[in-house]
Design goal:
The complex is a heterodimer of chains A (353) and B (167).
Chain A (H helix, E strand, L loop, with lengths): L19 E5 L3 H12 L3 E5 L8 H4 L8 H15 L2 E3 L2 E4 L13 E4 H7 L2 E4 L5 E2 L12 E3 H12 L15 E5 L3 H12 L4 E6 L10 H9 L3 E4 L1 E9 L2 E12 L10 E3 L5 E4 L2 E4 L3 E2 L31 E3 L2 H4 L4 H19 L5
Parallel strand pairs in A: 1-2, 1-6, 2-3, 4-5, 6-18, 8-16, 9-10, 9-16, 10-11
Antiparallel strand pairs in A: 7-17, 12-13, 13-14, 13-15
Helix pairs in contact in A: 1-9, 5-6
Chain B lengths: L3 E4 L9 H9 L7 E4 L5 E4 L8 H5 L5 E3 L5 E3 L9 H5 L6 E3 L4 E3 L5 H5 L5 H5 L5 E4 L1 H20 L13
Antiparallel strand pairs in B: 1-8, 2-3, 4-5, 6-7
Classes of the chains: A alpha/beta (353), B alpha+beta (167).
């Protein structure tokens, strides 16, 4: 079989409308939107700071879940059959400084330039900002986010990095914090890379694990030590490097006013385990391509605010995917990308519903 | 030409792309939906277009038929909305559409097939877990894809770039 067919709405490129759309971010939302827009005759240029389009489908999710060729061939098809122009290694900025994941950036384009040069702009930059827990020692060498870790592993497999740029895992002891899909993938990759011991710490029980009990059981079968009802309190270093981590056992609180039980530490239940790396997968924040006030409103979780037309608080600038939804799923981003592209099309063609 | 739309549950990663794309094409009502079992396994449920379709056999109004590609189709003009098709469906697929006053379900993207395009879910599934085509072609792809998955899980620490045949 071939790649994903992002332009699944048409068989071939239709007559051009003469309208040009810039998409920032070549992940599932941006690519799905690109597919819709080219099928409706618009010229589409896609900007992305990574060396090739695909977003988290290529640079985050392990290959055994999503085959690389499935994404790559899909992007090639957009490029060859539908004349979508990709601008890889290109960061769209508001003059903002360097961020995580800028490793591959070679060119910079001002956002205002895009607004000036295109009929519409779509922001689909996802949620790449991974939290690190705010505990003593989280600045030590050997503490990193699971997203960064998976990003580096995939970058090697895609041929953009060398194994020397991935922390050496073989024979090492690793603690992964979290129990979502990112945590599970970081744990599996660590096992595959030959870690001596992999621990997975989660503050609730297997029943609440966002990745589902099945995935956690699979990990346990592969030798991962599941530490449920634990949370890290401090990371202990030696010569600036991680040596051990101190965890505390948790119990569930009485339901609060919202009816939710929260894990609270049990005093005096602290214990230590020796580890070489602490990999954190405790959540991600949206990463809009700007740092502060630019006339585009964000909510308190950092998500871009859009109206029912998927338009931001700036006329002609739309947003879709995780940068609007918060960290979600490939499918939710694809769906949002499609609906947003439809809305862009109506807006460009002045169709009133 | 008999075609199949096969969902391979072991390859599904629960990303919900099939559901999102189907919803977009069907005005907010997807004909394929991902359900999560109590153990957290994602299972997409849609019409399997059975060879001996119980819904087609039980329908008292004769509203269910098979089209030239082998897709099981409900004719909303003939459907009396008795839900017998849902009662006998091993997968609980047919849905009562309140507006249409008839049962609806996956039709393997009938209007897309008219134009020579495959069902949208199979086009967009990132995990390549949905197969469409002649049975023998689909089966061949399923086995090929499963072999790749097994190999990837086993040797995922070895970069595949430059090793053997490029994918």
């Amino acid at each position: 079989m071939g790649g994903m067919n992002f332009a699944f709405l048409c068989r071939e490129k239709p007559k051009p409308t003469g309208k040009k759309v810039a998409i920032i971010g070549a992940g599932p939302a941006g690519l799905a939107a690109a597919g819709y827009l080219v099928c409706h005759g618009h010229e589409v240029h896609v900007y992305d700071k990574l060396p090739e389009p695909g977003g988290l489908m290529l640079f985050g999710i392990p290959e055994f879940r999503i085959p690389i060729y499935r994404v790559r061939d899909g992007c090639k098809n957009l490029e060859n059959a539908f004349e979508v122009k990709f601008f890889p290694r290109t960061k769209v900025c508001f003059g903002n400084p360097n961020e995580d994941g800028d490793d591959f950036v070679e060119k910079r384009v001002e956002f205002e330039e895009l607004v000036k040069n295109y009929d519409a702009v779509l922001i689909a930059t996802g949620a790449w900002n991974a939290y690190l827990p705010n505990i003593p020692g989280s600045d030590l060498e050997g503490v990193f986010s699971a997203l960064e870790y998976l990003f580096r592993i995939k970058s090697v497999k895609l041929g953009h990095m060398d194994w020397s740029e991935v922390p050496p895992i073989e024979g090492k002891k690793i603690l992964v914090i979290g129990a979502g899909h990112t945590a599970v993938d970081a744990a599996i990759e660590s096992v595959n890379l030959g870690a001596e011991k992999v621990y997975l710490s989660y503050r609730r029980t297997i029943r609440e694990a966002p990745a589902g009990a099945y995935e956690i059981h699979l990990l346990q079968q592969r030798g991962v030590k599941w530490l449920e009802r634990t949370m890290p309190v401090r990371i202990i270093g030696e010569n600036g490097k991680v040596r051990a981590v101190e965890l505390v056992k948790t119990k569930m609180s009485e339901p609060d006013e919202t009816g939710r039980r929260r894990p609270i530490p049990i005093e005096g239940s602290n214990f230590q385990i020796d580890v070489d790396y602490v990999i954190c997968a405790v959540g991600q924040m949206p990463t809009p391509p700007f740092a502060k006030e630019t006339g585009i409103a964000l909510d308190r979780k950092g998500r871009i605010v859009v109206d029912s037309r998927h338009m931001t608080s700036r006329e002609g600038v739309f947003a879709a995917g995780d940068v609007v939804l918060g960290p979600s799923k490939v499918g939710k981003a694809v769906k949002d990308g499609l609906y947003t592209a439809e809305s862009i099309h109506y807006w460009l063609m002045e169709v009133r519903e | 030409m008999r075609k199949v739309l096969h969902v391979d549950y072991s390859l599904c990663i629960g990303c919900e792309t099939c559901e999102g794309v189907c919803e977009f094409l069907h005005h907010g009502k997807p004909n394929i939906r991902v359900y999560y079992t109590v153990t957290g396994i994602p299972i997409p449920i849609n019409c399997r277009h059975c060879e001996k379709a119980p819904c087609m056999e039980v329908c008292p109004a004769g509203a269910i038929s098979r089209d030239h590609d082998g897709a099981i189709i409900i004719n909303p003009n003939k459907c009396i909305g008795c839900m017998m098709c849902l009662a006998v469906c091993p997968f609980g697929v047919p849905t009562f559409d309140v507006k249409l006053k008839a049962m609806t379900k996956c039709d393997m993207c009938a209007d897309r097939r008219e134009l020579g395009m495959p069902p949208a879910c199979s086009e967009m599934c990132p995990a390549e877990a949905i197969f469409f085509g002649k049975p023998e072609e689909a089966e061949e792809e399923i086995r090929r894809r499963t072999a790749e998955k097994i190999a990837r899980e086993r040797i995922s620490s070895i970069p595949l770039e430059g090793v053997g045949r490029q994918l």
